[in-house]
Design goal:
Elements: E1 3-7, H1 11-20, E2 26-30, H2 37-47, E3 62-66, E4 75-80, H3 87-92, H4 95-100, E5 104-109, E6 123-129, E7 134-138
Parallel strand pairs: 2-5, 2-6, 4-5
Antiparallel strand pairs: 1-7, 3-4, 6-7
Helix pairs in contact: 1-2
Length: 139
Amino acid sequence: MKKVKVCIENLAEFARELLDNLDGNCIALTGNLGAGKTRFVQEVAKNLDIKERVISPTFVIMKEYKIISDKRFKKLVHIDAYRLQSEDDLKVFKIKEILENSENLIFIEWPERLGQETLKSCKKLSIKNISENCREFSY
């Protein structure tokens, strides 16, 4: 597992590097509340020239953003699984279908709520708060 210290002034560069080297289309984001999971997704969205304001999907579970300037992906899908309660929720939100579409770039917060089988194709990215402006990313 690789660990990298990333401070706010380097976050855009780290997001671009991770995006450029991404093998697959799904990243499972783990970290404590306030670790910077949504902030990281916002930085990726900037790298993809998404102009729409990216916000945490905590209360709506999932937000989708159209990607115009990327050759691999057509849509960024940001999922916050914290409020999901059962396997039935996966069906309602069609999460398995979203994961199977290689044109979707998917970020899942609180992935442990979805189960290992659902997430087998996702890359794991853990974010740990080490200071006010710096995080440790493990992947």
